[in-house]
Model the fold of this input.
Amino acid sequence: MGFSDGQSIQLRWMCSDYATWQLGNEVGYQLTRYKIKQDSQVIRGIELQDTRFPLLDGTKPLSESEWTSFEDNKFARVAKGDQYEADSSVVMSGTPCLAEIVNQEESQNARFVFALFTTEMDFEVAKGMALGYKDEFVEGSPIERDLPNRFYKK
Done:
């Protein structure tokens, strides 16, 4: 999802489920920009690869200590908790029963939903969770600056 104000493009993304979100937190995220139009001509095929410009490579969420700069932000506190606090609501016994497994999955899904919510409510939190990026390199004419709005959902 993205939004352009004519000077920059704010991009925000999210994984489709808890397991993928956790993998993104461990491995990091990559973001690449491609130029799709030049001199009023749409760039296609192999030429599109030549316009590749990496923006992020392996970006991970802020560390637990880095979240301290957001102390007064309620969404950041929730995001930090989703990332780093242990889940005390589910305690697994030596041989987990079906109810414990279901409770654990529900707890993970709740953490994931709250992470979605915090990134939606505060773009700085989204960037801190490695789920947002502000691209301030918008080149060219007003038509080119308006182009991202045709491709990114507001």
User: Anything to note?
Assistant: The longest strand covers residues 53-59. The helical segments are 18-27, 46-49, 74-84, 98-121, 123-128, 142-146, 148-151.
